[in-house]
């Protein structure tokens, strides 16, 4: 489980160290940095796929993503990291020293690509020299081997991560485990529910333990829960949101389609007839009741398009999912945060409430403004 998330110089997140727990609810006014925190987590996940540099380039390059709150202390490095019970990871992005020029001196069309200047993984919750598992400085990489020694190599490209290039089970078994852990993280952000949404179309159905990021395989995911997951929890979630209702999956020659049977109606409602809020709630049901829980599940504004009456059933779903996976939920809706807190009290469990505030262009966590209020964190030095 991740215990600490650290971000430095990413948009309004100048120096932010956030403690995390099993269930984390991130709130705050508009513009306080909630979306930046969500995107920082996604960038960390992209590192394990070798896609963090490309993701930053899509944001306009490193200069567009860097914190720009104080001209006297202009940021030149973007740092992301996390630490947990088993592993920690930190990556330091910087501007190309050559300005992005090609080896022959000609200007490069990839001048917006940042370079990875420093990258480390370690065992345990705090970076210490004795706990290092992989240490990358520029092109030089050393990885801890299974016998406790070090394997040294040169030549990693400045835009490649050690997580994607050096996960050799013979030379770096712990690095491989960390990479697969990060790759198991799951993100859902503003899944479409409009008339042309993928979730409304009948599609070929196969066993689907993990809902796709766009919700296209919703019908198959719900049927998978019914056959191999928690069938009773699925029925309870639908009944709590829509009393007297039940979800069935129709099979039209191998193409699956959602049908919502409601009390008093002679026929079920098909996917094209469902309201945006109803469809979105069913999407969150499939995501949260997955038969294959990830190490980390991150939801960004799941309350969008939901009727206020659906917030409490959604809170119950979130608490149920938190029994099997770590959750970070980012929300604009105080009502949803309150519903989750109330359900947590009823179940006698804890919620880590993270309220973000913004002052002088800097985001910080409410009630944790001093260094002594933050979890212990060290960045690897360049």
From TrEMBL:
<feature type="domain" description="ATPase AAA-type core">
    <location>
        <begin position="23"/>
        <end position="332"/>
    </location>
</feature>
<dbReference type="GO" id="GO:0005524">
    <property type="term" value="F:ATP binding"/>
</dbReference>
<dbReference type="InterPro" id="IPR027417">
    <property type="entry name" value="P-loop_NTPase"/>
</dbReference>
<keyword id="KW-0742">SOS response</keyword>
<dbReference type="GO" id="GO:0000731">
    <property type="term" value="P:DNA synthesis involved in DNA repair"/>
</dbReference>
<keyword id="KW-0227">DNA damage</keyword>
<protein>
    <submittedName>
        <fullName>ATPase</fullName>
    </submittedName>
</protein>
<dbReference type="InterPro" id="IPR014555">
    <property type="entry name" value="RecF-like"/>
</dbReference>
<dbReference type="InterPro" id="IPR003959">
    <property type="entry name" value="ATPase_AAA_core"/>
</dbReference>
<dbReference type="GO" id="GO:0016887">
    <property type="term" value="F:ATP hydrolysis activity"/>
</dbReference>
<dbReference type="GO" id="GO:0006302">
    <property type="term" value="P:double-strand break repair"/>
</dbReference>
<dbReference type="GO" id="GO:0009432">
    <property type="term" value="P:SOS response"/>
</dbReference>
<dbReference type="Pfam" id="PF13304">
    <property type="entry name" value="AAA_21"/>
</dbReference>
């Amino acid at each position: 489980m991740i215990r600490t998330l650290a971000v430095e110089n990413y948009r309004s997140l100048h120096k932010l160290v956030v403690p995390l727990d099993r269930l984390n609810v991130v709130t705050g006014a508009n513009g306080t940095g909630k979306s930046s925190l969500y995107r920082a987590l996604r960038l960390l996940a992209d590192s394990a796929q070798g896609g963090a540099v490309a993701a930053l380039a899509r944001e306009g390059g490193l200069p567009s993503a860097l914190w720009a709150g104080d001209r006297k202390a202009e940021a030149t490095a973007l740092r992301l990291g996390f630490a947990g019970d088993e592993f920690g990871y930190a990556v330091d992005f910087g501007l190309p020293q050559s300005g992005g020029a090609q080896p022959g001196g000609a200007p490069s069309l990839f001048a917006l690509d940042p370079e990875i200047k420093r990258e480390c993984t370690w065992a345990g919750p705090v970076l210490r020299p004795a706990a290092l598992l992989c240490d990358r400085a520029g092109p030089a990489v050393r990885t801890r081997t299974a016998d406790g020694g070090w394997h040294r190599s040169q030549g990693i490209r400045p835009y490649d991560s050690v997580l994607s290039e050096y996960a050799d089970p013979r030379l770096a078994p712990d690095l491989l485990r960390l990479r697969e852990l990060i790759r198991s993280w799951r993100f859902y952000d503003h899944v479409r529910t409009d008339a042309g949404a993928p979730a409304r179309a009948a599609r070929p159905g196969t066993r689907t333990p993990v809902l796709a990021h766009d919700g296209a395989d919703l019908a198959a995911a719900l049927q998978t829960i019914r056959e191999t997951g928690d069938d009773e929890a699925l029925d309870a979630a639908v009944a709590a949101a829509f009393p007297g209702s039940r979800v069935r999956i129709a099979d039209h020659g191998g193409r699956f389609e959602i049908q919502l049977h409601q009390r008093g109606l002679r026929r079920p409602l098909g996917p094209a007839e469902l309201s945006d809020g109803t469809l979105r709630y069913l999407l969150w049901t499939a995501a949260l009741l997955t038969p294959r829980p990830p190490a980390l599940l991150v939801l960004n504004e799941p309350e969008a398009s939901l009727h206020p009456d659906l917030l409490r059933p959604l809170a119950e779903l979130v608490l149920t999912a938190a029994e099997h996976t770590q959750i970070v939920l980012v929300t604009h809706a105080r009502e949803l945060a309150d519903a989750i807190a109330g359900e947590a009290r009823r179940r006698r469990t804890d919620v880590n409430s993270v309220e973000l505030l913004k002052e002088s262009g800097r985001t910080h966590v409410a009630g944790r403004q001093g260094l002594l209020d933050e979890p212990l964190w060290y960045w690897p030095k360049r």
